[in-house]
Structures are given as C-alpha cells and as structure tokens.
C-alpha cells in the first residue's frame, strides 16, 4: 500500500476534481504492475496498473491489487474499475481509503464479495488527506478551503506570501507554491489585488501539466485598475471578479467550475471572514523574521466580507510547527463550522 501511495503522489495537484490514486498489482510475492491516475478523464489507477502488468507480459489473473482508493463501481468518464477487476480475475483487492462519491452504488465491497473476490481495507490516513479536496467537493459541491497567511515578527500581517518580499527562504516559498499547486483556485480581496498586484501563478515547484488555478478576486466596488497582472497576463481568462457576492455564493460558483480545493491568500479581513463564517477547513501560517513596522494592508470594512468577532478561540486540529530554515510554518485543520 505504501508503494501504491508513492504512485498516487505523482498525480498530486494534477487530477482535480478527481482524486489522486495509485495502485500496484502483486503476484507470487512480487510487484507485476504499477499505475496512477494522471488527470481527470484519463484511466484510473487500477486500469493503469493492469495495463502495465500486461505490457510486461504478466497475467493478472489470481493476483492481489493494492489501490489507495476504493475501486469505482459507477460509469463516469471511464467504465467502472470494479468490472474490469472482475473480468481480469484478480482474486484479492485491498483499498487504502473509502470513495465518498455517492454515485458508487452498490459499493465495491458488495460487488467483489458476491463474485468471491477477497476485499479488505488497509486505511492510509495520508491517502485521505491527499484527496481532502475531492472528499469535500464530491459531497458538498463546494471547495475545501485552505487559508494561507504570513506574519512578520512585529505582528504585521500579509497574505501575499507567494510574494517573495514576504518570505525569507526558498524552503518556505516552495511550501507556499506547493499550496497553490494542489489548489484549483486562489482567492484574494480587492485590496490585496490593488496593493500587491500579484500574479497568483505557480513557481518554485515542478508544475508540469498543471493548469493555472482560477484566480478569484472578491470586491465591494468592483473598481480595480485594468492594468493589474490578473487582468492582462497570459492567464487573464483564468481571472474571476466577484462584486458584492457573499462568500458562500462565491464558493458555490467556484465549486460548479470544479474547484475542489481553494486557497485563500487574503488579506487579513478576507481570512477572518472565512473563519468567522465557518468556511475555512485548513490553515497554513508562516512566521517570517521581518519587521514591517506598519500594517501591510489598510483594513477595510464591508458588510458582506466583514467578519464577526469570534466568540471563542478556534484551536487547530493536528497542528504542526516546522522550521523552514528562515521562516516558521504552522499548519493545521479546523473543525467544520469553526
Ligand atoms: C479517478 N481516478 O484512479 C479512481 C477514481 O469520471 P471517471 O470515470 O473518471 O470517474 C471518476 C470517479 O471515479 C471519481 O469521482 C471517484 O469516485 C472514482 N475513482 N477516480 O479519477 C482513480 N480510482
Ligand atoms: Zn475507477
């Protein structure tokens, strides 16, 4: 299963809104086939592994399939993998995480057991975490929201931390851009757009085959300089401007554009608005050894975006602190409705 998970990671950030999945086929104690899901619409990991075994001259009959996600039973853009597994006479299937897609009825376990195929779970929490966007989007139709913030040691905040002037070291920049890489949309407020004129593109990570995430700006007035990079660069058709739209509706719209994971890059008001409305699921926070001396962005109040004061502090779940050689990185999850 660990080998299958390593394969799943090769598709990280590239398969949305489909999950990243890896599979290996084992026979007589050795791996005879490997595969992973490369992009939405392409063959699933199980099929890739079966084809790989055949290419190398192996018969998969009587083998064991390890797959990081429960095999599908429904017809989507591709036929159900469960059918192919039965046809190929694979005798045992081990799955690393459940498939939350409600279209899978009946579930793989029922179908396999009826066919005399041994089915079992070997749950890998990291496989569930890898597909957290998919898990959320497939059942709610709205994105999993990651909030990203940076703070200088004098307490000044910024959200534009893809922005080199806010992050000291390359390791932190790499983490920041990796967050963009796993996202299908990046959202900022109009003030950040005006002040930082950000690109919201993916740099510092291998982004081969990755499509530019949607770039969403939320604004009260809608008045933004036309010459901003977001409106003029080669990805300008990937920019969406939401004027006076409540955040819940922004999420609905992005979800309908298959944004399964959304990165909120600020500013602080936007970040707090997502938090106070219980719309944020994950936090990525950078502490940088900088002194800014004044607030990076002027605060703005907006009836739709303004946040309520939190009635009690929100603890992060599973928080981690990491020394990124120059910057400190804190990451954690939020309970739904926090
Ligand atoms: C994937 N890759 O390796 C597995 C998936 O439209 P389709 O036919 O590609 O089906 C997508 C659904 O298939 C997806 O929502 C998930 O429930 C299931 N499993 N999907 O893209 C894979 N194993
Ligand atoms: Zn499948």
Fill in the keyword field for this structure.
about 350 residues; alpha/beta; 9-stranded mixed β-sheet; 5-stranded mixed β-sheet; about 20% strand; elongated; binds ligand AOF; binds zinc ion
Concise overview:
The protein is an alpha/beta fold and 338 residues long.
Describe the protein's architecture and organization.
This protein is α/β, with parallel strands linked by helices and 338 residues long. Helix content is 27%, strand content 22%. The strands form two sheets. Strands 6, 7, 8, 9, 10, 11, 12, 13 and 14 form a nine-stranded mixed beta sheet that branches. Helix 9 (229-232) links the parallel strand 9 and strand 10 (239-243). It starts with a helix and ends in a 5-residue tail after the last strand. Residues 296-304 have low confidence and may be disordered. The structure holds ligand AOF and zinc ion.
Unreliable residue runs: 296-304
Distance between the termini: 34 Å
Which secondary-structure class do the elements indicate?
alpha/beta
Please tell me the overall pLDDT: 90
Helix and strand topology:
Elements: H1 2-10, E1 22-27, E2 30-36, H2 45-55, E3 64-67, H3 81-87, E4 92-95, H4 108-114, E5 118-121, H5 125-130, H6 132-140, E6 144-152, E7 157-158, H7 170-181, E8 185-189, H8 190-196, E9 214-219, H9 229-232, E10 239-243, H10 247-256, E11 261-264, H11 268-276, E12 282-288, E13 317-323, E14 328-333
Parallel strand pairs: 3-4, 4-5, 6-11, 6-12, 8-9, 8-11, 9-10
Antiparallel strand pairs: 1-2, 1-3, 6-7, 12-14, 13-14
The chain binds ligand AOF and zinc ion (ZN).
